Amino acid sequence: MKAMSIGLLGLGTVGSGVVKIIEQHQDKLMHQIGCPVTIKKILVNDPAKERQVAIDKSLLTSNVDDILDDPEIDVIIEVMGGIEETKDHLLHAIRNKKHIITANKDLMALYGSQLLKEATANECDLFYEASVAGGIPILRGLADGLASDRITKMMGIVNGTTNFILTKMSQDGSAYEDVLKEAQSLGFAEADPTADVSGLDAARKMAILSTLGFSMTIDLDDVTVQGITEISEEDLAYSKKLGYTMKLIGLSSRDGEKVEVSVQPALLPEHHPLASVHNEYNAVYVYGEAVGETMFYGPGAGSLPTATSVVSDLVAVLKNMRLGVNGRSAVAPQYPKTMKQPSEIHAKFFIRLHVKDEVGVLAKITMLFAEHGVSFDKILQLPLNEKGSSEIVLVTHHATLTEFEKIQQKLNDYEMVKEIKSTYRVEGENGK
Amino acid sequence: MKAMSIGLLGLGTVGSGVVKIIEQHQDKLMHQIGCPVTIKKILVNDPAKERQVAIDKSLLTSNVDDILDDPEIDVIIEVMGGIEETKDHLLHAIRNKKHIITANKDLMALYGSQLLKEATANECDLFYEASVAGGIPILRGLADGLASDRITKMMGIVNGTTNFILTKMSQDGSAYEDVLKEAQSLGFAEADPTADVSGLDAARKMAILSTLGFSMTIDLDDVTVQGITEISEEDLAYSKKLGYTMKLIGLSSRDGEKVEVSVQPALLPEHHPLASVHNEYNAVYVYGEAVGETMFYGPGAGSLPTATSVVSDLVAVLKNMRLGVNGRSAVAPQYPKTMKQPSEIHAKFFIRLHVKDEVGVLAKITMLFAEHGVSFDKILQLPLNEKGSSEIVLVTHHATLTEFEKIQQKLNDYEMVKEIKSTYRVEGENGK
Predict the structure, then answer these.
(1) End-to-end CA distance of chain B
(2) B138-299 homologous superfamily
(3) What are the Cα distances from residue B327, in Å, to A321, B35, B120, B360?
(4) How far is residue B152's CA from residue B170's CA, in Å, rounded to a whole number?
(5) Nearest one of A417, A373, A367, A411 to A391, comparing CA atoms
(6) pLDDT digits (tens, 9 = 90+) for A223-240
(7) Looking at A40, A87, A153, A205, which residue is catalytic?
(8) Is residue B82 within 8 angstroms of chain A, CB to CB?
(9) What is the DSSP letter of B245?
(10) Under CATH, what is the fold of the domain B342-426?
(11) Residue of A14, A18, A144 to mutate when probing chain B, most B C-beta within 10 A
């Protein structure tokens, strides 16, 4: 029986994991697909280099066309990273009628719609489960759920580095800079952590998730992004005191046909399932009109978890090939995109202020909120070490982002308000 | 284009939900499957009865053969419940080459293997996602994961009634009997709650999950079961004090080819993701050799969540029909079953004792554990109101069930030990 031939672009940690899993699970794959699976060629920078995995050196090539133009190769697995050049390789492969599996979130966030369109036109499959949340089968879960439901909201902890940092800061009361160094030494943060701590990596994943979940083309530019670099130990201590846990939350929500997609540090009630997602783990909390609330949890990165997702995609592609039904899985976004305006975004807000320690300060501040129709869930006032100052922490009931921003502007103008130290959204309360 | 015709057995809350979803999502279903879907006949006890759902009365029948023998019906959805008679109906339908979707855990736990075998022989699909954990796509998740991984352990909160009761007992410090009454008045527990509180319902689901996850025929008789009726407020208070949360845990684990499947109240570290599964929610925590730890969370019951799972199964069956590949999904268990002996079961244990308040009691007790090679993680001794008595709570490090049972026998013989009040397993620590 003819074997299915795979071309692998990249042999880093994920690529090595894919090689290992395909070798170790050959029997199971055969059982499910009905034919053997072989890796025919692997693209590497330097075929002569010593490798961690035992690999037949004759499979290695540094010329990508050896793979893209090989008529015997049915499926391309892309685990090399990169954006522009990689996109060109994949477009070339698709035009050669090859099916694609990619773990590349940067690529999918920028060129996902284009690649999916091209794949559909060429009756090719394009699967990208590993591009969001490593080992968690979230895209498959969404696609299945979509069959008979309407997704109204997704909240995701989709970046392991920032979740590791926030978990440690929260548990140990340590400062951001110290924990970042620890994360770097443990391999949970890169030497240049910008893409992670700025929220960009999470934003890419939320663009991919939202495009699928809402069936609209959500671009990276549509995602409002705020990272974790400004979070202080004080913010975390107050969160805890008020019964919240701080997480970097990717949020996609829809009211009617209007959507919001954002990434920001937010407070969750400490009993919310997302609040128990610790360290480098990821999770996506999904609200469906019929199914209610579900959550998918697991490792968001790592060689073997990511490789496992890639191989699950491979099985799906190979089954489709045996059935002759490739190219039907990539459903083009069905709905036009309308982003919510700030006046249409409703949330609870946390705000921490330093004020002058004078009579009537709290009354004046709460009056300002009342004038904007905003009431309070929680109020805390404490003296500061700094003489003549005190600290006020407020958690509002639901308000629009517009009203909350207007209130902040006015607070800045008040002579008694020394500084607005921080503001955060509060999410996940009352089943919202 | 010819429509796919469905026969529905049962029109209770889940059946009505299925009717509603198929009507409301006709466009989406058409988009995915490529043809319309219609419900042709519905089995009910009394076709004349008034119903909550608007339904064409000409579809209703009280004669099951009108459905089972209708050559135009392609798929049977069974949401009527019952075991022996229902099994006979489904076998009859399978022999008439009809595909089956069932939400019936009682049936699948007892006759799943037989039904799957018959379905495979007749090239029919038999899907049963809704039989375990209502709206959570756990069976699909396991089946996907299995493609390229090996599952070593599953821990499940798979019964909503008992989780609701334990959550309330834990939060409010209330007694079991009081919370049970509250659960009954809220509709989270049935008038006769025996199947839930005895652990039987959870055991049925763990038998179904383990059969799929380990690819072995695990019968209900293979599952060791202990319910929640003996849990006291004191046990919950001590759990909390020691940093644990008590849950009714379904546990399937495998070392080499030997497995344990059990249901019992167990203590989890309060930061474990399963510890945040509150009220009537369900979750299954899965350990895979490659993927690591993943969790699937969602509503374990309810009309619409369960109906959503049923319709997801329906989409899978209908896609298979269009592709002409039915009957390949039910993979017969591949491995022989070997259950672990008590000497092969390793766990940490919690034990609470009432002892005479004498010099050297704790020393004598800890010595006994040491003689059996068992050391301690946590020790707590407190005076009791009862004069001359004190209470000792111990949490061991890992020990075999055999050694722990031997120790309990000896403790019972000690004159200074008044009573062993309770023992529980401690699970979910250190990534185990």
Answers:
(1) 53
(2) Dihydrodipicolinate Reductase; domain 2 (3.30.360.10)
(3) 18, 21, 5, 67
(4) 30
(5) A417
(6) 999 999 999 999 999 999
(7) A205
(8) no
(9) E
(10) Alpha-Beta Plaits (3.30.70)
(11) A144
